[in-house]
Amino acid sequence: MGVSLNDRLNKMSSVIDTRNKKIDEMCEEVVRLSHRVNSIEREISSINQTNAEFHESLQGISNVFDGIKEQVDKSENEFQNMKIKLDAMEAKVVHYASKRENEIEELIEKNEELTDQTLDLRCRSMKYNLIFSGIHENVPENTEETLRGFLAEELDIDYDIEFTVVHRFGQKNNKRNRPIVAKFIYQRDLDYVLQCAYKLKGKTFQINRQFPDEIEQARKSLYPIMKELRRKGETVKLVRDILYVNGRPYDPEDSGPAETLKYPQRTPSRYGSSSNKRRRINSTPEKH
């Protein structure tokens, strides 16, 4: 019975030791769990802090984007205002350019009118002028006496024609005789000299009316046309830079003389204008 109690006590003691050992193990496990919980809490705290910082960063980014959007909206408004101003300026520039273009066209037109008027005045100032070419030039010489001798010897004009001025023009050249220009006082004398010019046929002398260079160039371009029309039997007359065919101005766009009065062949404008404005002309050719 005593042995049995000891056995029981030993057994109970063994059980208690086992349980104490389990309790110790459980305590150790609790400690480990506690450490793990603390570690998890620290991780959660860190995550929370990171999350807070992230949210703070997001808020900062949101604020930046809000600022950018505000700047974009402001820039867009400024752009629209600038576009409105530019459109207004463009309209003003177009209006100003159109106005200036009209003014330039008016100035060109006035310049052309002045050019025509000046050319007309120059033609009028040369109306009583004849150019004599091929007359021998003496050095020295009295040019008027030389011309009178030519008129008497070559044209059989035996009376004294009155001149306003007689002189040679152009640079002196020993290899050729400079032309003589003579301004007549009376139209009848000039006409008579021209009537007698047929006596120079086959000789080296020439008598021509004097015209400004612009008119002279236009006349030169009309000479072949005039020659061809005469060959065809047409009645042609060249007055200044206008070619008359059967009494009407020649139209270069037609194969023959113009049926109606159209723009005559004339000196091109020095300004290059393609204006169709018609120059004043006589309805019939002049008698010279």
Keyphrases for this structure?
288 residues, alpha+beta, Alpha-Beta Plaits, 4-stranded antiparallel β-sheet, 3-stranded antiparallel β-sheet, 4 helices, 7 strands
Write up what this structure looks like.
The protein is α+β, with helices and mostly antiparallel strands and 288 residues long. It folds into three domains: 21-95; 127-210, L1 transposable element, RRM domain (Alpha-Beta Plaits); 211-288, no CATH class. It contains four helices and seven strands. Strands 2-3-1-4 form a four-stranded antiparallel sheet. A three-stranded antiparallel sheet has the order 5-6-7, with helices on one face. A hairpin with a 2-residue loop joins β6 (242-245) and β7. It starts with a helix and ends in a 39-residue tail after the last strand. Residues 256-288 have low confidence and may be disordered.
Question: How would you summarize what this structure contains?
Answer:
By secondary structure, the chain is of the alpha+beta class. The protein has helices at residues 2-125, 143-155, 187-195, 213-231, and strands at residues 129-133, 163-168, 180-184, 206-209, 236-239, 242-245, 248-249.
What topology emerges from the helices and strands here?
Elements: H1 2-125, E1 129-133, H2 143-155, E2 163-168, E3 180-184, H3 187-195, E4 206-209, H4 213-231, E5 236-239, E6 242-245, E7 248-249
Antiparallel strand pairs: 1-3, 1-4, 2-3, 5-6, 6-7
